[in-house]
Amino acid sequence: MDHVQLGRIGEEAAVAHLEARGYRIVARNFRCPLGEIDLIAVDGRVTVFVEVKSRSTADFGKPFDAITLLKQHRLTRLATYYLKGKNLLNHPARFDAVSVAVTPDGRVERVELLVDAFPAG
Q: Is the pTM of this model over 0.70?
């Protein structure tokens, strides 16, 4: 299984996990000049920017550890760009993260949701 396949499996698992919890997915792989956001969802009245981390081995550490301070700043800029473009700057928003463990044969082993994974700004 290559990196692209792993990412697709992880994203599909994350979407299913979020939808089962009542999130409504409004965008997947949102791209803009500043980069890409994996998923954008709505949870109640809150816009949620979701970072998905998929792993098939523990070689690169725990998935949530990959959301470094630098990555957080980049995601914050991306979220601001999105909110400004949709005229939603005055609405509540947060960052969630989803970790997906996938076996080498492509089976989803575990999905974990971290709500409010890091503060905006």
A: yes
CA-to-CA distance for 64 and 52, rounded, in angstroms?
Answer: 9
Return d(Cα 91, Cα 10) in angstroms, integer: 29
β-pair partners for 93: 47
Amino acid identity, position 8: R
Specify the fold of 3-114: Trna Endonuclease; Chain: A, domain 1 (3.40.1350)
Query: Over the range 1-33, which residues count as b (16 or more CB within 10 Å of their CB) and which as e?
Result: eeeeebbebbbebbbebbeeeebeeeebebeee
* Cα(101)–Cα(6) distance, integer angstroms: 10
5-56 tens-digit pLDDT: 999 999 999 999 999 999 999 999 999 999 999 999 999 999 999 999 988 8
